[in-house]
User: What shape does this take?
Amino acid sequence: MKQTPVHATRVETIATSVLTVPTKGEGFVDITREVARFLKETGGQNGCVGLFIRHTSASLTIQENADPDVLADLITSLRRFAPVDGGWRHTVEGPDDMPAHIKTMLTCTNLQIPVIGGSLALGTWQAVYLIEHRARPHSREVVMQFMGSWGRV
Assistant: This one.
């Protein structure tokens, strides 16, 4: 095993913004560029970016960005786990409403991404995605917050 040297930083700033993401219906929306742009605007150098989605029928994830088959297979698996025709009692907003809530419960409504040297510390094949669990298009809000040190290191 190998560990890089520990770098400590004092939280000098907390910056917040809300990202509005239009979706086209069920599927993944890559928001990595928008999160990186937010980080650049804050001038954040070391700390973390927190993301929180303000919805109960959409979610956030970090997933592979190289092979689109991964995202297609993930949608397929979520559909199998919470099918539209599952006999759900809660159908106020349509037959995909309760399955969307179940899928959100299984995934994440918030993420925390380390920031090192002014960059998101994502792996080579990782991207940040909003997952729309509803069939029709929506406008989703993601609260983005940077906490850490800013300016030149």
